[in-house]
Specification:
7 strands
């Protein structure tokens, strides 16, 4: 059920399950919190997690203290409820008890619950592109079992959902301004140019499958929104945008050289590099506006990589293993060259963000290997992260 509660003049939407979650218990013990769940409860918790992640204005409250379980009581543990919410809501955990006392107002019961398992399967079917039940990586496009095989219809639904959510979400507070170090500002200028393409060539090559074409158009719209937000960030910092940069020109020429498959191969390189770059922007600065913009873009990029991997997995099915191994080898060489070039070109900005050049290249290579695993139809495995002794190894670039 859904309730509206007010605290300090602000209204919050609180969502609770219509019935208690069975076989789930959260307790506070001597060494920290302890969560114990059954198989069915795992699915319900995953759906609740997804709902909180996709509803930045809602608070998901799971009253696990009322569940019929005795976990934590035998060793003096104290039962706890689980509260999930989006970080952008900016809601302090210390205020939850006060808000909980007011949540009974304006109750709006949800539709009658479906039989056990049906609602969970329906929810998982709707969120396949974004739900991750396998670790820190985005879902494998060919995952079987509870998630099932991916289709273009699933990706289209994901992009449409995100477009609707983006339309309802307010822009970052540009009026607050931003403080960017000159090295970081120069780096953001270059990435803003790369995000600002119209995508006409990619859209033209995607013709032939109406569903995939519609998803590609929404993907291009998200990339253009990234360029708009980066331009807004630069304007808030009093920094102008630039019309072009040599790196973007090279990427565009490579992407347009041949057909759709080569364009997606080059585009995937850019997306994997962007994953590490925007993570550095999000985590390496104390400016709230920069952190918020980078976090929004990073969330989109984490969906874009498996989307392109899905199409490339289909495109490479016709190649035999020897030919595919040769293509992947050349692809790795190109990726390595791009990663080194970006690390050298943006090295001063990366250093300001607390990321050494060698760490940046190593993380990009690790993410690319995970993408290749998806394209081969395998479950990506997180590789070891290389951390050099010095943040800025000398003599390498």
């Amino acid at each position: 059920m859904v309730s509206t509660a007010r605290l300090a003049g602000r209204a919050y939407r609180v969502i609770r399950p219509a019935r208690p979650i069975a076989h789930a218990c959260l307790s506070e013990r001597r060494h920290g919190a302890w969560l114990s769940v059954g198989k069915a409860a795992t699915v319900e918790l995953a759906c609740a997690w997804w709902l909180a992640a996709r509803s930045p204005r809602s608070i998901v409250h799971l009253p696990l203290r009322s569940a019929a379980s005795s976990c934590g009581e035998g060793d003096g543990g104290r039962k706890l409820d689980l509260v999930l919410l989006h970080h952008s809501l900016g809601f302090p955990a210390s205020r939850w008890k006060r808000l909980r006392g007011d949540r009974a107002r304006d109750l709006e019961p949800l539709p009658r619950p479906e039989p056990d398992g049906v609602a969970a399967r329906r929810a998982l079917h709707a969120v396949r592109p974004s739900l991750n039940l396998h670790g820190s990586h985005p879902p494998d496009p060919q995952a079987r079992g509870i998630i099932g095989p991916m289709t273009y219809a699933h990706w289209l639904q994901d992009f449409e959902t995100e477009a609707e959510r983006r339309g309802q979400r307010e822009d970052p507070p540009w009026e607050r301004g931003a403080k960017l170090h000159p090295d970081v500002a120069k780096s953001v200028q270059r990435f803003q140019v790369g995000e600002a393409g119209d995508g006409a060539n990619l859209i033209a090559k995607a013709a032939g499958d109406d569903t995939y074409l519609a998803a590609v158009k929404l993907f291009v719209a998200e990339e253009q929104n990234h360029a708009r937000m980066l331009a807004g960030l630069l304007a808030a910092a009093g920094v102008p945008t630039i019309a072009s940069h040599w790196s973007d020109t090279v990427f565009v020429k490579l992407r347009r050289a041949l057909g759709l498959r080569l364009e997606l191969m080059v585009l995937l390189i850019a997306e994997v590099v962007a994953l590490r770059y925007y993570r550095a922007l999000r985590d390496g600065t104390g400016d709230p506006l920069l952190t918020q913009v980078a976090a929004r873009i990073l969330a989109d990029e984490e969906r874009h990589v498996p989307f392109h991997c899905h199409r490339l997995e289909i495109a490479f099915r016709e190649l035999g293993k020897p030919a595919r191994a040769a293509v992947f080898g050349a692809w790795r060489v190109l990726l390595l060259g791009v990663a080194i070039t970006v690390a050298a070109d943006h090295g001063q900005a990366l250093h300001r963000l607390g990321v050494g050049r060698l760490v940046f290249v190593a993380d990009v290579l690790t993410a690319f290997e995970a993408a290749l695993a998806r394209i081969r139809g395998e479950q990506p495995k997180p590789g070891p992260r290389y951390t050099p002794k010095r943040a800025r190894p000398r003599g390498l670039f």
